[in-house]
Amino acid sequence: MAISVLPGLSSSTYRPYVHLHIPLFRFVPKADAYVSKSLPLPTHFPEFNDDDSKLRNWKRFSSNHLGIATSMIPIPTRKVLNGLKKTGYEVYLVGGCVRDLILNRVPKDFDIITSAQLKEVSRIFLWCEIVGRRFPICHVHIDGTIVEVSSFSTSNRPFDRQLTSAAIEKPMNCEEIDFVRWKNCLQRDFTINGLMYDPYNNVVYDYLGGMEDIRKAKVRTVVPACTSFQEDFARIFRAIRFAARLQFHFSKDIAGSIKNLSCLVFTLNKARLQMEMNYLLSYGSAEASLRLLWKYGLLEILLPIQAAYFIRNGFRRSDKGSNMLLSLFSSLDKLLAPNRPCHSSLWVAVLALHVALSDQPRSPLVVAAFGLAVHNGGNMMEAISIAKSINRAHNANFCELLEPENLEVQALIDEVMDLTTFVKAALHKMTDEHFVSLALETYPQAPASDLVFIPLVVYLKVCKIFECVVEGAERGFVPKRGKINYECLALGNLLELRHVFARIVFDTVYPL
Q1: Of residues 51, 52, 178, 189, which has the active-site annotation?
Q2: For a FRET experiment, which of 225, 410, 464, 476 has its CA 20 to 30 Å from that of 169?
């Protein structure tokens, strides 16, 4: 029997006993667009007719009718899918990538699950390693990228959600493969992540009601939110991330549980907190994430200095355009995407600049000259010359910006130097437990927090971004021009960081 394959496989992809030659097709993703709540869901696929309650919500949908095409799958992922399928294993795309394809978004990454054992996966592909102890997966290295592959045999681990043995019994008239897929989906955190896509039969399997939640633009946990969040508190951050990135709303269960369990943030180690905050602020949805953190009482725990700013200025969640902190992150979001993130030092630098301006408002000309000096490696005279030539009106809604004044060159240099000193002092405040603990002391209703999760390596990277302003033009320095190199930005390349930082500052102070 012939086995169908997806376009995009080369015989060198895996071990020599599999031979297949198919021309490669370039991956052309759909435009990144938000799907409305009126997303039409096909209903012509047959549903289970058994009376068993476990089967009532099991549905299959045509991937073609959902707008999913195999050309939307990157070539390295297609090569791995084909390698496993050709060898006779069941193979699916699973999790967030399926959700994003349905929503007409470019996924951050593509995860594969297969009926093959992980050791069998490692035998199929030339360069593959098994990583992870508690939940092992395979990293398949292919075409300069890593494709993650998990196995049904390891993902269907013993249940730890107090489910009875009867709850996971195979229902009557249920095929074994459906039972295996269903059990795996029960281990997911959110229903919208519990979809499986079979690209060979063009079917999306939904065992948890995830498609209905996508239609309603709702984030809902697979098990009660209180139970789910206590299993892994980091799921609260994931819920906020999905709601912010997808513009979805929470189920009542999730909204209540986040507020009730927000204090559990202290149970996560600082490295995990920094990683989760980076997911929230580095992938194009930072403004919405900050709004949600504020709404659900997490901002005053994680970023007390920023929470104090919100309280001091009487911030309301509906405010738009008058809050400089959110406007700075809105400018950052316009330059990023889930598949085009920035290094964490960039959003820390933005926070530090805003703290400095909140403590001591400045003329927009001073802020512009500072941003330009950062961009061009400390060439102050060039920065001032360009800043003085700006004829665009600044954003007058921000209390952090003073009325423009025509400063002489030396006075402007002094102001820029003083702002740099304030930025460095703000960075020190944000990474010092004592200063952080003082941020909300005048607001007795706010919880006390001295949490600092910004690591030393990020602190030093941010210092490096700004040090050129004080030390002067660097020898042989050539400012970044043209388009953003997102690979370099994600890695923390200094040129890219300074280039994007300056763009954020300018677009916020002098919006089009």
Answers
A1: 189
A2: 225
Q: What is the pLDDT of residues 287-332, one digit of tens each?
A: 999 999 999 999 999 999 999 999 988 887 666 778 999 999 999 9
How are beta strands 249-250 and 91-94 bridged, if at all?
unpaired
For residue 151, give the nearest of 119, 124, 197 by alpha carbon: 119
| 178 noted as active-site residue | no
Catalytic residue among 109, 253, 319, 418: 109
CB contact at 8 A, 443 and 311: yes
Average pLDDT over residues 377-384: 93
Domain spanning 59-158+170-216, CATH architecture: 2-Layer Sandwich (3.30)
Position 443 scores a pLDDT of 86
CA-CA distance, 220 to 146, in Å (whole number)?
29
Task: Report the number of secondary-structure helices (H) and strands (E) in the chain.
Answer: 22, 10
Catalytic residue among 111, 178, 198, 333: 111
The domain segmentation of the chain, as residue ranges, is 59-158+170-216, 315-509
Report whether 124 contacts 14 (CB < 8 A).
Answer: yes
The predicted pLDDT at position 411 comes to 95
Q: What is the 3-state secondary structure (H, E, C) of 377-423?
A: CCCHHHHHHHHHCCCCCCCCCCCCECCCCCCCHHHHHHHHHHHHHHH
Q: Tell me if residue 189 is catalytic.
A: yes
Q: Active-site residue 206, yes or no? A: no
Mean pLDDT of 27-53: 38
Predicted pLDDT at 412: 95
Whole-model pTM: value is 0.85
